[in-house]
């Protein structure tokens, strides 16, 4: 049923001014990401510059929501963006992407990232404990990470590609929210499958039911596998119809992406100018 309902959202067509507004909204919700072993301070600075001004000012494109980097790159992103930047600094943590680190090591990594200037922490859950049925351990680790994050927002990555079933995705979503997550996130982007619409729908419905039960709004971040503007707009339709307009804001919905931005910018240029720019018209992320 989740797959059937998710497929229905891909049948919607958004045109003209509504499409342009939707594309700009996608840009404003994007966590521009680089998570590679070859990351350098220069590459992070370049990513920050692109997040601050994704396109030519004539297109009136908003800034991206955040840049997402490894913990040891946080200080470089913070230095480039400054203290009061509209673009947040997000850091992956807790032994990303495997999560197979001792808890004290995970928490030290989180504290260091926040001390270096991270506004947001993207942690990975302990999938080993979850799949072994030790849900209390998963809860406790998330709660401890939330405490270690201090003022930073906590995004909890479920790594849904490793959870096997939709029931597991639903249960992991509930555990994460109850343990203090500000956002729940599908994937690290390092495991296939990453974000899919049915999995995201299951997580959105968990957020909706948690809101009805508690009055607390939890954010959502699909990450990995969303590569073009058309897919991104389908996700926005799904969010609107499942959670309502309140969630159509970077404060409650994000896209984790490294390759999505340029396709969205090409579509914006096409909508404004009436013709496509070549992919090389835009700088690579």
Counted by DSSP, the helix tally is 11
Number of discrete domains: 1
Order of helices and strands: HHEHEHEHEHHEHEHEHEH
Terminal Cα span: 36 Å
Descriptive notes:
This protein is α/β, with parallel strands linked by helices. The protein has one domain: Alpha-Beta Barrel (TIM Barrel). It is 47% helix and 12% strand. The protein contains eleven helices and eight strands. Helix 9 links the parallel strand 6 and strand 7. Helix 1 (2-9) packs across helix 9 and helix 9 (197-214) packs parallel to helix 10. The longest helix has 18 residues, at 197-214. The mean pLDDT is 94.
Which structural traits does this protein have?
alpha/beta; 12% strand; 8 strands; TIM Barrel; 285 residues; eight-stranded parallel sheet
Write the layout of secondary structure elements.
Blueprint: H1 2-9, H2 16-28, E1 30-33, H3 41-52, E2 66-69, H4 74-81, E3 88-93, H5 103-115, E4 120-124, H6 127-131, H7 135-149, E5 153-157, H8 166-178, E6 183-185, H9 197-214, E7 219-221, H10 229-243, E8 255-257, H11 260-273
Parallel strand pairs: 1-2, 1-8, 2-3, 3-4, 4-5, 5-6, 6-7
Briefly summarize what is shown:
With 285 residues, this protein is of the alpha/beta class.
